[in-house]
Amino acid sequence: MKKRYGRRTAVAAVLAAALLSGCGRTAESAVAENSSDGLAFSQEAVTESGAKARSSSAGAMSDSGRGSGETEKASGTEGESVVSASSDISPVAENRSAGSQPQELVDLEEQIRAVMAGEVTGDTRGSVYVEELNGTGCAWYDSSSAQTGKTPETAGPMQAASLIKLYIAGAVWEKISVVRGQENEEGETNSLLLAMLAESDNTAANTLTSRLGQGNDTVGRQVVNDYCKRHGYTDTHMGRMLLESNAADDNYTSVRDCSRFLKNVWLSSGEADAEAVKNALGAQNTSASQTNAAGAQNATDTQENAADSQNAADSGEKNGGGEAGTAEVYAYETDMPGAAQILQALEQQVRKGKIPAGIPSDIKTANKTGELDDVQNDAAVVFLSDRPYCISVMIQNVTASGAAIQTITQVSAAVYRYMSG
């Protein structure tokens, strides 16, 4: 039987509304009901196998790579995808952080909406998050919301596919001495990290995860989940190894977690300007008082929400979220271990048919894609000289992969035009 995760409680929603993060949402929007904008792919489905070419006007790309490649196909069974948990068991979005609040780019959100709303319908879901890397502007869209003004706090995680490899890399660099201590030859860890990030090598990802657990896959996944929890990636959860069949659990993340991860990489890599780093440090210095305020509010509400406490605990169990009923404060990081190496590996990405395909070829990008038979994802840093930004796009329950890829490229192009205008 597939596991399901409890819905967020009333106290969680109230606190998230009181301490909103991301794009300056209103308290009213934080508790709005989900509805569908509709995102339909009319084009014929395209086979994702590494032996077949993708059909996309944005530019074809190959799924072949070291190990099993980007799409999670078992070696020797190219046309047969790994069986993974269906999207209806994704963990519910828990209380998000509320510290450094970006400023909403309303015009950009409307442009993203215009592209997405015409392409997605039915059960297909599309989500986009954009944030300036040296500034504070951001834009967010999710097709499950009736309007772009809805907060990311209520959106919920989506199937990560190979985007989970970003967080594996983060955890490895945080435990680099443990992982390097298990090398078969000098430099093996660096080679595995490059293969995992630049070529989306699934075998490399599994090897690194196992070594995080010193040979135990389950422990290794928990190390990744603990990493995500500590660093505020509250929508992200590693529930299975790459290529592994698991009907009860899957790998999850969100566009906001991916963009937040990439911004932490940027701020810690030496690429960020001094003002951006200063702003991030300022947010860290103010986070403690905001956290205390959230805790005080939580204590006040404890008695009247006692009946909801078990549901809140269930909701946070799988998604790495904070303690039930609390609204955590998020502060960007400027000292992330391995940030420069992660960024350099992503710059060497071999799959550039999604977000990078919507950007002029002379603009440098660093991206990580992810896909399953019914999932198309991409997250990228765009090195626009005057206005660098990160963008994450996730689409799940896809019925036509070529059309989904084209939609991601169109969104990327719209964001680039806005940022460079």
Automatic annotation (TrEMBL):
Tagged with keyword Heme: no
Top-rank lineage group of the source organism: Bacteria
Comp. bias intervals (Polar residues): 288-313
Keyword Hydrolase: yes
GO biological process: beta-lactam antibiotic catabolic process; response to antibiotic
Signal peptide, first to last residue: 1-26
Record-linked InterPro entries: Beta-lactam/transpept-like, Beta-lactam_cat, Beta-lactam_class-A
Keywords: Hydrolase, Signal
UniProt biased composition (Low complexity): 49-62
One protein family per Pfam: Beta-lactamase2
Database matches in Gene3D superfamilies: DD-peptidase/beta-lactamase superfamily (3.40.710.10)
Domain Beta-lactamase class A catalytic: 191-286, 336-394
Region feature Disordered, mapped onto this chain: 31-103, 288-324
PROSITE patterns: PROKAR_LIPOPROTEIN
A GO MF term: beta-lactamase activity
Protein name: Serine hydrolase
Organism: Bilifractor porci
